[in-house]
Design goal:
alpha/beta; Aspartate Aminotransferase, domain 2; Aspartate Aminotransferase, domain 1; 2 domains; 7-stranded mixed beta sheet; 14 helices; 12 strands; binds pyridoxal-5'-phosphate
Length: 385
């Protein structure tokens, strides 16, 4: 038989493990140890869990590197930690960062408030105005940062186009790929230099861990690791073990999220009380063509606008019985949130409307329940709206 490389589900389950020894545990042990016995007189780095070289930390990192097609990867204490450290690995005081305007609220505050304190300048680009990427470049621009798909409009950005620009300028392209996971999209295959994840979301997948990850070339990941050691951002071994377990089902989970996402988005689009549905798998989505070309699935994230605005949203949320009102995403249970109170709370109603997120907007993170039950619950909510 011709040799083929393992598929992504196989990689997620086995990593580089080829054969197991007799009596070796099938599920790996948790090395709940801060420190490890050192050989006498050796120059090698000691094993210490804050250094990120605990076996549980190394196993889960190797798993993600393979899934992203990266030379190396590292897990840290949160998605915000991953974002901060990835940028600190490529930026110095006096450098300029060009960021997409369509980013996570915490990341925006990190750029605006914290990076300013370190003398790192940040400009924001509306990705709909493609020319701005070039016109806002400066001599000291060292990196470009984007999220794709975005929250909560699920816009899909053209990473290949940005990679050509970044390459020509000799600067780094960093992509937060939290909404896609390596099952649906692998930014490095499209020319990105660094991939960032909030592993709190789909990668772990069970709403029970806070973690983040960075993947890319070995020198960049090593820079992240140095920063992680000194800024104290290491992941706890038990959390690493839980993420490794979560990754084993990432393939089947994403298949189901993708199927349910398309089924529910298609159903929602036919409902009279829904003005608009934002899902890249729908032909009505502005990026449907690009999404269909570059994504292997459209995920379980759906945005919807209710005809009745804020009051209808309130009535709808109170009528739901199965779907839980909570922030965050990517878990087995379906969650719903209102961006006006979460990610976009800092904007005025007019600014939100201008950004395409009018009051009455709901964001769904569809879980792994039976899609019929989710649709029944949404029908109940819409009836009350
Ligand atoms: C949640 C999220 C983050 C932050 O991750 P934490 O694990 O909560 O620190 C960053 N980026 C995106 C796209 C997210 O959804």
């Amino acid at each position: 038989m011709p040799h083929r490389t393992s598929g992504r589900s196989t990689l997620a389950i086995h990593g580089d493990q080829t054969a197991r020894a007799v009596r070796e545990p099938v599920s790996p042990p948790i090395y709940q140890s801060s420190t490890f016995v050192s050989p006498f007189g050796a120059q090698d780095e000691v094993l210490y869990t804050r250094y990120g070289n605990n076996p549980n930390q190394l196993r889960v990192a190797e798993r993600l590197a393979r899934l992203e097609g990266a030379e190396a990867a590292i897990f840290v204490a949160s998605g915000m930690g991953a974002t901060a450290l990835a940028h600190l690995a490529v930026l110095n005081p006096g450098d300029h960062l060009l960021s997409s305007d369509w980013i996570y609220g915490g990341t925006r505050r990190l750029f605006r408030e914290e990076f300013a304190r370190f003398g790192i300048e940040v400009s924001f680009v509306n990705p709909d105005r493609r020319r701005e990427w070039r016109s806002k470049l400066r001599k000291n621009t060292r990196a470009i940062f984007v999220e794709t798909p975005t929250n909560p409009l699920m816009r899909v950005l053209d990473v290949e186009w940005l990679a050509v620009l970044a390459e020509a300028e000799g600067i780094a392209l960093l992509v937060d790929s939290t909404f896609a996971t390596p099952m649906n999209y692998r930014p490095l295959e499209h020319g990105a230099d660094v991939v960032i994840h909030s592993a709190t979301k789909y990668l772990n997948g069970h709403s029970d861990v806070i973690a983040g990850a960075v993947a890319g070339a070995a020198p960049v990941v090593e820079e992240v690791r140095e920063r992680m050691k000194l800024w104290g951002q290491a992941l706890d071994p038990h959390a690493a073990w839980l993420i490794e377990r979560g990754l084993k089902t990432l393939g089947v989970r994403m298949d189901r999220h993708n199927q349910t996402g398309l089924a529910v988005a298609t159903w929602l689009e036919r409902q009279a009380k829904v003005r608009r549905v934002h899902y890249p798998g729908l032909a009505s989505h502005p990026d449907h063509g690009l999404a269909a070309a570059v994504l292997d699935g459209f995920s379980g994230m759906v945005g919807l606008e209710l005809v009745g605005g804020a009051r209808a949203a309130g009535r709808c949320l109170r009528a739901l019985r199965l779907i839980t009102h909570a922030p965050s995403l990517g878990g087995v249970e379906t969650l719903v949130s209102e961006p006006r109170f979460t990610s976009h709370a800092a904007l005025t109603p007019d600014e939100r409307t201008a950004a395409g997120i009018p009051d009455g907007f709901l964001r769904l993170s569809l879980g792994l329940e039976d899609p019929e039950d989710l649709i029944q619950d949404l029908a109940r909510g819409l009836a009350a709206a």
